Amino acid sequence: MNTPSSSRQRRIQQWGAVLWPSFIAAGLACVVFFAFVDPLRLQAISFPGTAISRELGYTAGFFMFWAVTALSSAVTGYLLRPMPSEEDEEPLG
Q1: CB 52 within 8 A of CB 61
Q2: Is 14 exposed, middle or buried (0-12, 13-18, 19+ CB in 10 A)?
Q3: Which spans are transmembrane here (predicted)?
Q4: What is the pLDDT of residue 22?
Q5: Count of alpha carbons within 13 Å of 23, Cβ hemisphere only?
Q6: Which of 4, 36, 51, 72 is packed most tightly, with the most Cβ within 10 A?
Q7: Cα gap 46→40, rounded to integer Å
Q8: What pLDDT score does 91 carry?
């Protein structure tokens, strides 16, 4: 039986299963990406009229990578949900 606490716990586990791996993947993506790309040079190419610090570039890059990897993990989690069985369907008439 689904109680509110077990439903809440399951939801927290689902969010953790999406956010934790995407956090790790975003961290690794940042390390690899910013090993080759300087945020200040990237800013000069993409937004030449905006002044940002290197730290803000790293932060924005991390959150961008985290959003993309979280979306990827969320889609994977959605696709792995079990299909409803025929027994779960209610009769129409």
Answers
A1: no
A2: middle
A3: 12-36, 56-80
A4: 95
A5: 6
A6: 72
A7: 10
A8: 60
Residue located via tokens 């990827």: 72
Torsion angle of the four alpha carbons 59, 43, 66, 81, in this order, in degrees rounded to the nearest 10? 160
Q: What is the pLDDT of residue 89?
A: 63
- Round to the nearest angstrom and report the end-to-end CA distance of the chain: 27
| Cα 36–Cα 47–Cα 25 angle in degrees, nearest 5 | 40
* Residue in the block written with tokens 């299963």: 17
Q: Which two tokens stand for residue 9?
A: 């716990």
Say which DSSP state 80 is in: T
Q: Are the beta carbons of 62 and 27 closer than 8 angstroms?
A: yes
Tokens 């369907």 belong to: 89
Residue 76 CA: distances (Å) to CA of 16, 62, 71, 79: 14, 21, 9, 5
36-61 pLDDT per residue, tens? 999 999 888 888 888 889 999 999 99
Amino acid letter, residue 5: S
